[in-house]
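Researcher: Structure for this, please.
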Amino acid sequence: MNQKFRSVLVVIIGFIAVLLMIAALVQWVIRPAFAELERSRALEDSSRATEAILREVRQLSSELGDWAKWDDSYTFAVDRSADYIESNLSSWEVLEATSGFNLIAFYDMAGNVVFNEIYDSTLGGFLELDAFSGATPPIQAQLASVFDDQEAIAGILPTEHGPLLLAAQPILTSQGDGPAHGVIVFGRFLDQALLQEFATQTHVAFELFALDDARLAPAEEALLGQLLPGETRFQLDAQENLVVYSTLTGLDGEPAALLRTPVRKDITATGDRTAALLAISAGLGALALLLAGVYLSARDQSAQREAGGRTAWAAATLTLLVGMTLVALVVNSVHTQNETSLAEQFDVMAEEQANRFFDQLAHEQYALQSVAQFVANSSVVEYAAFASFWSPLATWSTADPIMWAPQTGAAYVMARDAG
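Model: Predicted structure, token format:
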């Protein structure tokens, strides 16, 4: 085997070895790393979708607090005044449009129905739900803690018309005093319009399925009985796309709906571009080595071929320069794409954080307005009454630590005024 052929063969073998190493690096290091990043972001997406729904539950409970701690409601639970119904419950179009309510129910302390109406314009107007039908509606079993212990509850209730966001509180005076005269329940259907609103807020294209949703594949139906509260699972859907599944827990502790969140593929696409850049760079480098080997082999020839050697060197140098230029262009292109992708991700995250901030700000404004209304309706603000009033707001308000601060909070001011 002559020296020239041996040199070329060594370079070719080295080139193949480099390609194999790159393929192994891409398959076992780069792609798994980017796939793990994708899964982590999918879990974050699922968590944001869940939080958007639970935030709406808390908002519903907060709105219910104004009705539950109100002297007019306290009296209505006993006298069943037609004037109260006419003033507050007669226009469902207004209630649905302004507050998003689909269900309002009043029960006295014996469990008797004082008022019970369900309305949804998208479902044709007034309707009935099995859980709220009959002289003793089945829902009362899940309201036992409200009747017995005067504890506010909120959560998700599966119904024949889809998941229902539900909140229930004891009916007290405007000062939060008892004894309770009954229980008031608010509900809002988790319909497609509301889900689309959440998807827009969170920038997550999630889907929510009721327990009896006809769109559920058999494997997805099985997940409803397999997933524990708070558990997530990655699985291929019916279209062979990787998604993450989780369940929303109902008031009874059982699954109330199945949440499906897609795994977005842009991170893997970035990984593929990085791998392609690596392969191109290594290929061009190997090509340069091959041409250099040819040049070195040609240089060892007899003196009469010196001019040919100079020609080979010039060709090798030109090829190397072209190759390095291509590498620089590819690097710049990928760098620009990555910067654009990072900027888009930053914009999305910034908007999400801004939405969370404004949502929390709206909640705090509502809490402060509720406190102002409580004080305005109270001739004397007592510590026990205020603590009872503030209790449901404290579950989500960040003002709770300030409210009870030793030297500035409500407890201090009330104790000082009382003294």
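Researcher: Any notable elements?
Model: Confidence is low (pLDDT under 50) at residues 307-311. The first strand starts at residue 103 and ends at 108.
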